Amino acid sequence: MPRLALSNVEVVYDKVFLAIKGVSLEVEEGDIVALLGANGAGKSTTLKAISGLLGPERGAVTRGEIAFGDLDLLSLGPPKRVEAGLVHVLEGRRIFGHLTPEENLLAAFPSGRSSARFTELRERVYTYFPRLKERGRAKAGYLSGGEQQMLAIGRALMTEPRLIMLDEPSLGLSPLLVQEIFAIIREINEREGVSVLLVEQNANAALEIVRHAYLVENGQIVMDGSAEVLKQNPDVQEFYLGGG
Length: 244
Ligand code: ATP
Known about the structure:
Blueprint: E1 4-13, E2 17-27, E3 32-36, H1 43-51, E4 60-68, E5 71-72, H2 78-83, E6 86-89, H3 101-108, H4 115-128, H5 130-134, H6 145-157, E7 163-167, H7 175-192, E8 195-200, H8 203-209, E9 212-217, E10 220-226, H9 227-232, H10 234-239
Parallel strand pairs: 3-8, 3-9, 6-7, 7-8
Antiparallel strand pairs: 1-2, 1-4, 4-5, 9-10
Helix pairs in contact: 3-6
Bound molecules: adenosine-5'-triphosphate.
Adenosine-5'-triphosphate (ATP) binds at residues 13-14, 17, 19, 37, 39-45, 58, 91, 201.
GO molecular function: ATP binding
Organism: Aquibaculum arenosum
Keywords: Amino-acid transport, ATP-binding, Nucleotide-binding, Transport
């Protein structure tokens, strides 16, 4: 698994608005790391800079360095980054509501590969998310919010990622479901060895599963450390963990 390293990354929207101001961070091979911060802090923009969803056609310019192993990601378009093993699960799930879960998985499966491989990967997704198999014939648009999030993660697994980036997987889910999905994310990280970069406003839940976290405010990293250390930090408790 290659290591992801951002060094002094800046993102400018609409030529004037500096949304990301010199972010440096690392995700070691097989690691599980969170980017925590309030709404609008710049977490989603950071993920988009990594996956390449911020081209000039979107009025955004990314500067600095983003390396994935020995690849210079900023010189590669988004499809090449997916081929390199990076997958980005966008906020809001973005599944195909008019297709069944299985059809969604098929749509995410890279073309030109064998149907046997598809079956293998699909079954692997179903071992993590048996509910998707049970809901086999339902259109994905009728799945619950939690099931849709499971499907979004399942789709990402169909690309056989080496690093999976998840934007707010807890959004709109009950605390119990958040726990369930986070436990599965942790399991995927441990069993598959796939690295995880998790963006969350829900710091409480995220710090239960990640090893290391970065706190983002106003486009900058203001603090980082191991989950254990951050949980004990009084500022983190006050501002991110709801007063501990
Ligand atoms: P959220 O959880 O709401 O997604 P976030 O921490 O992910 O928050 P970003 O979405 O990265 O934050 O936004 C960072 C800043 O960039 C915000 O001030 C936001 O308004 C601005 N921004 C985001 N997307 C664009 C865009 N396409 N054009 C201009 N400004 C943008």
